[in-house]
Each structure stands twice: as structure tokens, then as C-alpha cells.
């Protein structure tokens, strides 16, 4: 029961951070979103610093799990275009709060330095999956270009979900996908 309730509170915490930022995600707002009394937050997640650490662990764990799933899916693709199709699928499989909260936590590293390494490692893993896939699908491409394209595709991918609180036009997803396709096509041999 405690694990389930902790997950519900972490989910509410993610919603609040996505809406109000890390500092604006007050215990009052989190408790209201979770449907619990404020003192129960401490019982389940601890004090404010412990809550932030728990949120960081939750976000890092979720991001790493999704990266693992992505890696499994990408094992079956044959072209860099398919990589972009998988990343920019509009099926809603990735919770847009995840990147918003990841970026809020990243912005808070100055106040909470212990958050830095786990967050950085999530991006390192994600980039490694993209890079390995691009190396496999574009075997003749220069390693430096592959790394640069992986960075570019990653940045494009992350930026769309981080804009979700702004409710950008859906056309932006298509435009960002086109930008990622332009990048990956630069690895293909010129005909």
C-alpha cells in the first residue's frame, strides 16, 4: 500500500512540477493533486529535500526504462528514417510531463547538486542508444558526424515535449520531425 500511495504522490508531484516548476510545486498543491492531507506527504516521501530526491529517482528511473524500451525497438529498424519515425510517433506513449520535470530538476541542480549525476547519466544513455542505432543504420558515416547528429536529434526530441506546457501547435511536431530527418539524412551517402 505504501509503495502504491508513494507512486500516486510522485505522479501528483510530477503534475505539479510540470505546471508550476519545482519551486512552485508546493506541498499544498501536491497534497491537493494527490488527494491526501499535507502531513501524509512527509510520511510517504519525507521532507522537501527527500521529496525532491524521490522525484529525481522516479524521473531518472522512468527515463531510463523508456530508453531501454527504445533500445529494444530500435534493434529492429533498418534506416535512420525509421529511428526518427519511432522517436516522433504521435501515439502519446511518452508522458510529456517527463521532459518538463526532467528539465525542472536539471535547472535546480545549483540548489540540489546531488541531482546532477543521475540526470546526466539518463541523457548519456539516451544519446548512446541513438548513436549506436545511427552507427548501425549508417555504417559508412563518420563517427564524429554520427555523434553530432545523435546530439541534434536528441535536442530536437527533448525540446518538443519540454514545450508541452505552452501547448504548441501540433504542426511543430511535424516540423521538428522534418528537422530530425534532415539531420539523419546527412549521414546517408550522397547519390
Describe the structure concisely for a colleague.
This protein has 9 helices and no strands. It is mainly alpha-helical. Helix 1 (2-24) packs across helix 2 and helix 4 (48-74) runs parallel beside helix 7 (116-137).
Please give a handful of descriptors for the protein shown.
191 residues, mainly alpha
Structure, explained:
This protein is 74% helix and 0% strand. It is mainly alpha-helical and 191 residues long. Helix 4 (48-74) runs parallel beside helix 7 (116-137). It is elongated, with a radius of gyration of 18 Å. The N and C termini lie far apart (60 Å). The mean pLDDT is 92.
Layout of strands and helices, then pairs:
Blueprint: H1 2-24, H2 27-34, H3 38-45, H4 48-74, H5 80-87, H6 97-107, H7 116-137, H8 143-162, H9 171-185
Main sheet record: none
Q: Round the Cα radius of gyration to an integer and report it.
A: 18 Å
Q: Can you write the helix and strand succession as a string? A: HHHHHHHHH
Structural class: mainly alpha
Residue fraction in strands:
under 5%
Nearest-integer average pLDDT = 92
Fraction of residues in helix: over 70%
